[in-house]
Amino acid sequence: MPETAQFVDPRRWKALIFIALAQLMVVLDATIVNIALPSAQADLGISDGNRQWVITAYALAFGGLLLFGGRIADLWGRKQTFIVGLIGFAAASAVGGAALNTPMLLGARALQGVFGALLAPSALSLLAVMFTDAKERAKAFGVFGAIAGGGGAVGLILGGVLTEYMDWRWTFFVNIPFAIIAAIGAVAVIREPVESHNSSRLDVPGVILATTGLVSLVYGFTRAESDGWSAGPTIGLFVAAAVLLLAFVVVESRVKAPLLPLRVVADRNRGGVYASLALAIIGMFGLFLFLTYYMQVVKGYSPVKTGFAFLPMVAGMITGSTQIGARLMTRVPARLLMGPGFLAASVGMLLLTQIDLDTSYPALILPGFLLLGLGMGTAFMPAMSLATHGVEPRDAGVASAMVNTSQQVGGAIGTALLNTIAASATTEYAKSHAAGAPSRTALQLQSMVHGYTAAIWWAVGILVLAAVIAITFVNAGQPKGDGAVAGSGDGAAEDVVPVMAH
């Protein structure tokens, strides 16, 4: 492959280790705090009304600033942005672990979101410009996809262990060694092609409109969870989000150096990837939350036992990503991995709609978790690769940011949407079955389970919709040489050269 030899970095596989470590840290943080939250609330005296902000402050800052972070990566250089993001994330984690009161903890969570918005897109875009051979790209994104898909469940396990055997503060402090090791490794082994930088001026109006629009959208769903969908503030936030994001599209179509070049999302394949990923995350994040409460409150599992109960899902994701997705990515079209992957996950979710007070873990929950993990892992891996493939190098950072934006906004929407559905179903069931209930405790638990299953049914439908979008939009007529579908060998590798050589 003489044409590609000059672009092959001999240290790229070592670099993948540190990029994957940083990605694991960011994904872990999205769920690791969930299990620790009750302990932190009791320790710091956080009110019930404010406890949601421990999660929301992170989601708002992360989701709202991701596009900005992606463009900063294109402007500064991905390696520099990656290292700054790591150092800042570690510092914010140290503040969170040492928090003395509620404002200090919430501020630390928001700062984690800010630096996460720099770190996540720079990590993914580094892979996009460092791995250009079709087979190598498949392996690299297989690792990355497994971490992106399974990291949330690993966070539940680690959060349970740290909270039960150490202290909730260690769910923050654990990020520091991750960040230090990844930063040292990045300095030593990551080498980014200089010609892939984008020296255009920063689109300040685009930054303001995108950030405020996404924050309004995420905050709107958060308020819907607490205030209801018809409340004035909720409706106002959704209207504001629509106006701001529409104005953002208009501005981006007219400025010379847009924050989000519309060519990035207008591509049929990338648009399909972003939409299907967002929908899949909507279903998945809600499931994590419901089943965590189901296993701890209904089944009486400890935090550690709850975390380990999710291990088969993690194993399924890793297997689906590295053994199915990565092996088939260069042989079959991406849609034939993404569509069936999301459908397999929906079957796993369908099994979980059958949970009850006395459900057996081995008989029902275990096979549901395995199917969900295998399906998601198989679908995530080609999605991660295709979402950044074929973009001009100067747009790699912002294309990567769109992947993370889909996940973060999808996660925030999913948690709020499915929580609202579950709460409503729980209340209705409790009212209609109050007369014949054997005891108040039994009614309360049965109502909770009914609410969870009602929400999981919605998640099944959402995953089926994700599969339909993937099969419909991620079409077989992709650009020749797409690493996700182009066959193996020199020809495929040569076709991928423009990703680095623009």
UniProtKB/TrEMBL annotation:
Report the locations given in the UniProt record.
Cell membrane
InterPro entries given in the database record: EmrB-like, MFS, MFS_dom, MFS_trans_sf, Sugar_transporter_CS
Mind listing the UniProt keywords for this protein, alphabetically? Antibiotic resistance, Cell membrane, Membrane, Transmembrane, Transmembrane helix, Transport
Q: Which SUPFAM superfamilies match?
A: MFS general substrate transporter
User: Would the keyword Zinc turn up in this protein's UniProt record?
Assistant: no
Q: Classify the protein's membrane topology as the record does.
A: Multi-pass membrane protein
Looking at the record's lineage, which domain of life comes first? Bacteria
Membrane spanning stretches: 15-37, 52-70, 82-100, 106-129, 141-162, 168-190, 202-222, 228-251, 272-295, 307-324, 336-355, 361-384, 455-474
Provide the primary localization.
membrane
Cite the CDD domains for this sequence.
Answer: MFS_MMR_MDR_like
Q: State the name under which the record lists this protein.
A: MFS transporter
